[in-house]
Amino acid sequence: MSAGAGGERLAGGMANAGGVFRRGGVVDRPASRNAAGVHAYLAGLRERGFDGAPLGVALGGGREQLTYVEGDVALPPFPARVMTDGALRSVGRLLRRLHDAGADVPFDPGADWDRALADPAGGPLLCHNDVCPENVVFRGGHAVALIDFDLAAPGRPLWDVAMAARFWVPMLDPVSAAAQYPAGLDPLRRLRLLADAYGLTPDERADLPAVVEQTAAAGRCFVERRVADGDLAYAEAVARQGGWARWDRAQAWLVSRRNAYAAALRD
Ligand SMILES: Nc1ncnc2c1ncn2[C@@H]1O[C@H](COP(=O)(O)OP(=O)(O)O)[C@@H](O)[C@H]1O
Ligand SMILES: [Mg+2]
């Protein structure tokens, strides 16, 4: 973090890198296209007792203000303290609480949600869609809040679980995983831990490996579009990670491990 005219600049993130500031208890950042819908959703979550997300404070001039959530947000390479079994379980429980509260929050499915990472099947609630470590606040070794709801859009809860699994297990080929994650994580055991902590049903467990593959494809499309639109932060990240071969490798890995993941979830 560094001091700036707009407050303390907050490090982390890609889409709004350099544009997120903290002033006391408030975060000031570029507004997403349906920030009004997101603020209403965040208020609805809070009314239903969910405290694991910021609240909208104000909106205008292309920017939004949200409450600052006290804690730590990990940046890559991710430290071991956010990749413990306990940390992973806490992510699963937090996501479950988000979905349980969100199931009762009304929203307009036809609103102008940013669907760049949305579930192609659509669904009954607003998914977060970007449950990566950079968007989860930790306190005392446990996930306490999700932030950055810019890509929230209608979807199935399973879509969010798949997103979380890809980033938090991680479900990633060993070469790519070694660049960003601590050594020694057992993906099969951790996938099961996350599914159990969330409380996936048997049917959801059966569907999860294929949905993870879909989220990886969606993630690649998202990055391809950003690069095609001239977004330098994304272009540099792709180059730094060895180009599109990294995405090919990740996708091939998911296919090759499909049966092993399925067995770990089932047995
Ligand atoms: N409401 C918040 N409370 C605490 N920290 C926040 C909040 N919003 C953003 N941050 C911090 O700022 C960083 C970047 O913000 P984020 O909104 O995720 O940007 P981006 O859209 O680029 O991903 C986050 O990784 C986190 O450290
Ligand atoms: Mg973010």
CATH class of the largest domain: Alpha Beta
The gyration radius over C-alpha positions equals: 18 Å
Largest sheet: 6 strands, antiparallel
Helical percentage: 40-55%
- C-alpha end-to-end distance: 45 Å
Short description:
By secondary structure, the protein is an alpha+beta fold.
Question: Please, could you describe this protein's structure?
Answer:
- By secondary structure, the chain is of the alpha+beta class.
- It folds into 2 domains: 2-67, no CATH class; 72-266, Alpha-Beta Complex (Aminoglycoside 3'-phosphotransferase, Chain: A, domain 2), CATH 3.90.1200.10.
- The protein is 45% helix and 15% strand.
- It contains 9 helices and 11 strands.
- The strands form 3 sheets. A 6-stranded antiparallel β-sheet has the order 1-2-3-4-6-5, with helices on one face.
- Strand 1 and strand 2 form a beta hairpin.
- Helix 2 runs antiparallel to helix 3 (157-168) and helix 6 packs antiparallel against helix 8 (245-256).
- The radius of gyration is 18 Å and the shape is globular.
- The N and C termini lie far apart (45 Å).
Characteristics:
alpha+beta; Aminoglycoside 3'-phosphotransferase, Chain: A, domain 2; six-stranded antiparallel sheet; three-stranded antiparallel sheet; globular; binds adenosine-5'-diphosphate; binds magnesium ion
What's the layout of helices and strands?
Layout: E1 2-4, E2 7-9, E3 21-23, E4 26-30, H1 35-47, E5 56-60, E6 63-67, E7 72-73, H2 85-102, E8 125-127, E9 136-139, E10 142-146, E11 153-155, H3 157-168, H4 174-180, H5 187-198, H6 202-228, H7 232-240, H8 245-256, H9 258-266
Antiparallel strand pairs: 1-2, 2-3, 3-4, 4-6, 5-6, 7-9, 8-11, 9-10
Bound molecules: adenosine-5'-diphosphate and magnesium ion (MG).
